[in-house]
Design a protein that fits this description.
Blueprint (H helix, E strand, L loop, with lengths): L3 E6 L4 E4 L10 E6 L2 E2 L9 E3 L4 E4 L8 E9 L2 E12 L1 H12 L1
């Protein structure tokens, strides 16, 4: 499955969703960034909400760019969703806006 590519602006919020519908038994949800397990409890910049179905980053930074993976797992199997996140700095956006006004 190809990642959903998202371009975000520096210091804006990001909401990544991992919707799990009717999982029986309920699924355990894990989030990864560049194949490393994320630990939101050890980070002030990440928050996992709605039982793991939402990864919230209140103010994205350039270092938040990368490939995010959500894995929902139960005894029946697993499901995976990928996001490609690119964070652009404010300077690039301002330059683009100035180019449009010329």
């Amino acid at each position: 499955m190809e990642p959903l590519e998202i371009v975000l602006v520096l210091n804006e919020p990001a909401v990544l969703e991992c919707e799990v519908v009717n999982a029986v038994p309920s699924a355990n949800i894990s989030w990864y960034k560049d194949n490393d397990l994320l630990n939101p409890k050890g980070s002030s910049n990440l928050d996992v909400q709605q039982g793991g179905q939402v990864l919230y980053i209140p103010k994205v930074q350039v270092a938040d760019s990368g490939r995010y993976t959500c894995v929902a797992l139960n005894i029946a199997g697993n499901s995976t969703r990928f996001y490609g996140i690119e964070v652009q700095g404010e300077l690039k956006c301002l330059m683009f806006a100035m180019y449009l006004h010329l």
